[in-house]
Amino acid sequence: MAARDDGRYVEFVAASQERLRRTAYLMCGDWSTAADVTQEALLRVYVAWPRLETGDGLPTYARRALVSALIDHQRKNASRRKREDRVRLPDLVGDGTTDRADRAVLMQALRAVPPRQRACIVLRYFEDLCVADTAAALRCSEGTVKSQTSSGISALRRELERLGLPDLATATLGGI
Looking at domain 89-173, which CATH architecture does it have? Predict the structure, then answer.
């Protein structure tokens, strides 16, 4: 068994923790949950660290651990999770920052997309991963990534239109 190099692990965490947390937030829509899931993913990386150090797939493994930790978290909390209140647009526009309101509505719409489809959208378009890397992170086929992404984009468009913001769907999803 390889020796554990904690110094390199600490460097990896410093370089990647914030990005992993943002990715988790985009997938779950809650900063507190995102922080918890990120810590769980980094713990999983630490446990596997001795055999990961020699490989080139460290960021891929970390994303995979993040997705797995989020799925585990959602399964554990499914029975006690209460339905979230929908964010009302007038409350968001009151501060005069349209961009912030648009971002909040986009996050609300993204939460309405089924989890697997949401993960594909986040990894493909927010993390800018190719289809192959997304498939590796989600442990599925490239065809599944393509179909889930397509279905997710359609669901996101429908939700944005339902919220009365078809222009946001066009601006956000433009050529997608």
Answer: Orthogonal Bundle (1.10)
Q: What is the DSSP code string of 95-159?
A: TS-HHHHHHHHHHHHHHHS-HHHHHHHIIIIIS---HHHHHHHHTS-HHHHHHHHHHHHHHHHHH
**The domain over range 6-77 is classified in CATH as 1.10.1740:** yes
- CA distances for 112 relative to 53, 107, 115, 118, angstroms: 37, 9, 9, 9
Task: Quote the CA–CA distance of 105 and 88 in Å, as a whole number.
Answer: 9
pTM comes to: 0.66
- pLDDT score for 168: 67
Domain ranges of the chain: 6-77, 89-173
